[in-house]
Amino acid sequence: MNDKQQVERVFARLFNGGLIERVPKRADDAQVFLALAAASLPGAAHAETEVNLHLAAWLEDIVTPVSMDYVTVRRALVDAQFLLRDVSGHRYSPNFRKISSVLTEEAMQVRPVDVMIQVHAEREARRRARVS
Prior knowledge:
It is a single chain. With 132 residues, the chain is mostly helical. It has one domain. The chain contains six helices and three strands. The protein has helices at 4-15, 27-39, 48-59, 70-79, 96-102, 112-131, and strands at 46-47, 83-85, 91-94. It has a three-stranded antiparallel beta sheet with strand order 1-3-2. α1 crosses α6 and α2 (27-39) packs across α5.
């Protein structure tokens, strides 16, 4: 199970080259990324449109839109069983049993955009230190 600091380190590594371009290839990183995306959804069942809108907002500031979109992430969430689909395929619910096997409660509160801002600030500080 990943704690807050571990999740922040994963996202810092993912943001090292800028915005995230795809669901991470490393299995552990993908699990953290997907678990956090699923944890960001409220606990009730949602229509596909609601899930799409929520994921689009969650991804908006952290991914390259031409390379990864909410549909790709929603499908990955379902495939990895972080998001459960009802029998009819119209309603989705976060699988908190699976999410909590990957993230602690505190780690579920990490905001990737905050990690990205911190990574960029640290990079800028290092750049300024080299110039001085």
